[in-house]
Amino acid sequence: EDQVTQSPEALRLQEGESSSLNCSYTVSGLRGLFWYRQDPGKGPEFLFTLYSAGEEKEKERLKATLTKKESFLHITAPKPEDSATYLCAVTDSGNTPLVFGKGTRLSVIA
Amino acid sequence: DGGITQSPKYLFRKEGQNVTLSCEQNLNHDAMYWYRQDPGQGLRLIYYSQIVNDFQKGDIAEGYSVSREKKESFPLTVTSAQKNPTAFYLCASSIRTGSREQYFGPGTRLTVT
Fold first, then answer.
1. Looking at the predicted structure, is the pLDDT value of residue B60 above 90?
2. In this predicted model, which residue has the larger pLDDT, A94 or B26?
3. Omega before A8 within 30 of 0, i.e. cis
4. Candidate from A42, A46, A96 with C-beta closest to B101
5. Cα separation of A71 and A34, whole Å?
């Protein structure tokens, strides 16, 4: 059974203080790893898809990386508007829906 | 303007009543999904459909039912058999199931008292 574990559960940063969120996964044959951002009371917003170890993708202050066991979402010089819950999800070699982690709740303080 | 719509945004029902949540997409996606989100629980899959007139149970299907009569629509009925229906419900779609990203609607918050 596919499993996704995100850490930490919550992270509080000062504006400009860079950090990383972790997503570790157990899956038989990774076909894709996905990052989403979710604001309170709203649906998740798609950020990135990573398909193979060593792959990296960037969007503004966010950079996602992938290894064979985990993915990191690096946040460089965050701003208060980056405050949100960040969700990680995986899909395996079968034709199955995404399996989501519980998310990391990020707060960036001005 | 393509996307996924869910209605209503807030829904209130009395215990013992069935209620249907709407989900429509104009992205021409084959696959559609329903998730439930509770505080600290993450997203849990209720049902998904890979194609019209076909759907599969997810991890927490008990007390829920769905239909997929049109490609664009995937309504979810929360029945009176669902023991704890109060939650935030999210609908999503993707080109197909598997290694493709899912896109989410804005969600419906259901409160049952």
1. yes
2. B26
3. yes
4. A46
5. 9
